[in-house]
Amino acid sequence: DEYAEDHIGDSRLIPLSDIEAGFGSKQIVALVQTNQQPTIVLYCHSGQRSIKAYKRLENMGVNFVVLQGGITAWRKVVPKSQDTRVLNPITWKSAVLR
Q: What ranges in 6-58 are assigned the alpha helix state H?
């Protein structure tokens, strides 16, 4: 429901429950295979689930960063209508944790 309500750009939804069950890491591997040495941005509503996910995923050999403060902090700086303008200069894929 949170993802349907708001998400950043064309980010992918990978729930923390999928990561904890092991399914999420397979989805991330698929993302990584489409880009050379990508940085995966983990975010959720406030940042807490992203940190939990990072702790589960940090040894995968993938570059992960956590969006501090989650989408709540992002929206304080970037309105939804500006996501594309802000993200276009950046080559990125992100995993959304809901």
A: 16-21, 23-33, 48-57
